[in-house]
Amino acid sequence: MTKTNGFTKTSVTSGTLGSVLKRMRANKDLTLEEISNATKIQVKYLRWLEEDNCKRLPAPVYVEGFLKSYAKFMNEDYKEIIALFKKEQDIRENILNKNKDFGPIKPLKDTSIIISSKAIVVSLVCCVALVSFAYLYRQAYFIFAPPKIEISTPLHDTTVSNQTIEISGKSSVGSQIFINDQSIFANADGTFQESVKLSEGLNILKISSVNKMGKESKVIRNIIYQPKADHP
Fold first, then answer.
1. 57-81 b/e with 16+ CB inside 10 Å = b?
2. Rounded to whole angstroms, how far apart are CA atoms 227 and 65?
3. 3-class state of residue 138 by DSSP
4. How far apart are CA 174 and CA 180, in angstroms?
5. Torsion over CA: 14, 20, 23, 24 (sign)
6. Are 196 and 225 in contact (CB under 8 A)?
7. The whole model's pTM is what?
């Protein structure tokens, strides 16, 4: 600080414009009303200047006029004060321009999942419906699809020397088993076993399974019966 014409001269090289003006006023022990009466600047503008409340101040050209009158009354270099004001204005404009470049800041969406009782009920109903559909589809498949049949013996077409051959295998539960269109007994689990008397030469055996809907599956076995030759 330096003394000039009986006034205390304050450096304006540090702090914001508002803090510099407030420090000037404090050094001279003046009130805002006293400065207003001397400079004809309204008290509200003086207060906003000290608070750095630039949004409420008039256009910059008017503010520069205020600062010139203020500095002269305080016996300060108005050029330094106006330069500080312009510097802060440039900084504010740069910040505003950067914000515009990035666009408005959008609030984050609430990504939390809220599960309502209605959603739970709907989900349960859908699950029940899906399970029911799968069950009905499975039942329909067993009803309308041809029954399965597997022959254990004989596994393939073969030649035998015994006149009797054993036919065994397994079919879908509830199906009726036929050998050359003659019904045979099947166990509750679908297994069956039957002895068949062969004729000499080629025997074509058709083993078939027929379910309640009349769907049929069949397996053919070609069995050649060659009796052993009697030696004298």
1. beeeeebbebbebbbebbbbebeeb
2. 134
3. helix
4. 19
5. positive
6. no
7. 0.41
The conformation of residue 114, written as its DSSP 8-state character, comes to -
Long-range contacts of 90-96 (CB under 8 A, 24+ apart): 92/54
* H or E element, residue 125: helix 117-144
Q: At what angle do helices 43-50 and 32-39 cross, to 10 degrees?
A: 120
Domains and CATH numbers, the chain: 15-102 (1.10.260.40), 149-225 (2.60.40.10)
Q: 95, exposed or middle or buried, with CB in 10 Å at 0-12, 13-18, 19+?
A: exposed
Containing 50, the helix (H) or strand (E) segment is helix 43-50
pLDDT tens-digit map of 35-69: 999 999 999 999 999 998 888 889 989 999 999 99
Question: CA 16 to CA 174: how far, in whole Å?
Answer: 97
Q: How is residue 186 annotated by DSSP? A: B
pLDDT digits (tens, 9 = 90+) for 57-104: 899 899 999 999 999 999 989 999 999 889 888 888 888 777 666 555
